[in-house]
Amino acid sequence: MRSPAELTEIFRANGLKVTPQRQLLFRLVHGNECHPTAEVLFARASEQMPGISLRTVYQTLTDLASMGELRSLDLGTGATRFDPNTDDHHHVVCDRCGDVRDVYVSGVERLPVDGLDGFEVREASILFTGVCPRCAEVGDEATPSQHRNPSSTTNPTTTNTAKEKLS
Amino acid sequence: MRSPAELTEIFRANGLKVTPQRQLLFRLVHGNECHPTAEVLFARASEQMPGISLRTVYQTLTDLASMGELRSLDLGTGATRFDPNTDDHHHVVCDRCGDVRDVYVSGVERLPVDGLDGFEVREASILFTGVCPRCAEVGDEATPSQHRNPSSTTNPTTTNTAKEKLS
DNA sequence: ATGCTGATCTGCACGAATTGCGAACGAGCA
DNA sequence: TGCTCGTTCGCAATTCGTGCAGATCAGCAT
Predict the structure, then answer these.
(1) Torsional sign, CA A125, A126, A127, A132
(2) CA separation for the pair B167, B157 (Å, rounded)
(3) Is residue A64 a contact partner of residue A3, using CB atoms and an 8 Å limit?
(4) What is the spatial distance, in angstroms and rounded to an integer, between the CA atom of B60 and the C1' atom of D17?
(5) What's the whole-model pTM score?
(6) What is the per-residue pLDDT for B25?
(7) Measured between alpha carbons, how far is A39 from A81 in angstroms, rounded to an integer?
(8) CB–CB of A158 and B108 under 8 A?
């Protein structure tokens, strides 16, 4: 994503107004590697501009996303996350803490895909899940919560793909 | 996913009761290639068992999923979808109609991933998006699916005046 | 500077997808 | 046939966003 100054120019060049709220968000999102949610950005923004509306945060983020200056991500973590990194990349999510990191994968377009059967693929996004270094240190006590059933089948759901050790 | 009969045995063997509601859902989900949502299954179930609760549908589906007999998918289409196919596979979603199809990709675990930096990857899921053969035939007038879709690549829905020129 | 005017912002209600909870119900065993 | 505890049901509550409408303000013209 471009710098706050560049975004300001782009907005103005396109007939969009540059408000203090937008500028604040430009700054908060620029270079933000944390893949924040709208709520998180709202909290940060509120510190510097009490009274800013959550509605405005959503608005501005979707605007930036529709301009291609920001990517909005659905990583299955409940809320949409925003990523200023607009490169062609993918993500890893930590099962335990929910932390997200950008990863680069090459050769995706060369993968043999079976079953497409006429489907024209335009985009492929890979979502890796696992345990981040920090959580791995802490230990194993954090087991994925089980529902009511104590003794279910042994079969571990589907832990097959991308068996670690890849970089 | 296993057959309704097998599931019945498994449930009982695990001390879970086999209710008519559960059996109905076993049948509705078994071999269902449509990746239905809970709401859709609820509708189908209601036809055969008026009065069944949506709550029960959710309950049973999550139970099956936590037993590894069913995979629950978040494909960014708004609602969780359920897939009786527990093989190691991935999905393609049609941008236009929201249709989902299973695809098989080999060599995923051999992809070079850059930026992991200590992250232990346990699983990788690939989500392809594009246009299904049926929608491709129809042309461009096909309307997007009825699900709310967070994607940013398309028009900004309503009142956006100056923004229209951007995307 | 000052005024205009339409783009923005804010607050609130609404909507979709789940989940929490407690009371009524019923599957499976004695 | 009866008991008991797992299930079901229905409704409230929650989470994440979006639609709306009136109050405001950025940016251009005067």
Answers:
(1) negative
(2) 12
(3) no
(4) 27
(5) 0.85
(6) 98
(7) 10
(8) no
Q: Does A151 touch chain B (CB under 8 A)?
A: yes
In whole angstroms, what is the distance from residue A7 CA to residue A27 CA? Answer: 10
Integer Cα distance of B30 and B61 in angstroms:
12
- Six-digit token string for A60: 């501005």
Instruction: Please state, in angstroms and rounded to a whole number, the distance separating the CA atoms of residues A12 and A10.
Output: 5
Q: Pairing state of beta strands A90-94 and B71-73?
A: unpaired
Q: Percentage of chain A surpassing pLDDT 70? A: 83
Contact of B76 with B151, CB cutoff 8 Å: yes
Average pLDDT, chain B: 87
Cβ contact (<8 Å) for A164 and B122?
yes
Q: What mean pLDDT comes out for the span B146-150? A: 36
By Cβ distance, the residue of B74, B109, B136 closest to A161 is B109
Percent of chain B surpassing pLDDT 70: 83
How are the residues of chain A apportioned to helix, strand and coil, as percentages rounded to the nearest 5? 30, 20, 50
Q: Is B151 in contact with A65 (CB distance < 8 Å)?
A: no
- The answer to whether the beta carbons of residues B108 and B77 sit under 8 Å apart is no
Record: contact A162-B121, CB cut-off 8 A: yes
Kind of pairing between the strands at A120-131 and A90-94: parallel
Quickly tell me which residue has 């983020």 as its tokens: A61
Sheet holding A113-114: strands in order across?
A113-114, B100-105, B90-94, B120-131, A120-131, A90-94, A100-105, B113-114
Q: Count Cα neighbours of A87 within 13 Å in the Cβ-side half-sphere.
A: 11
Over the Cα atoms of chain A, what is R_g? 20
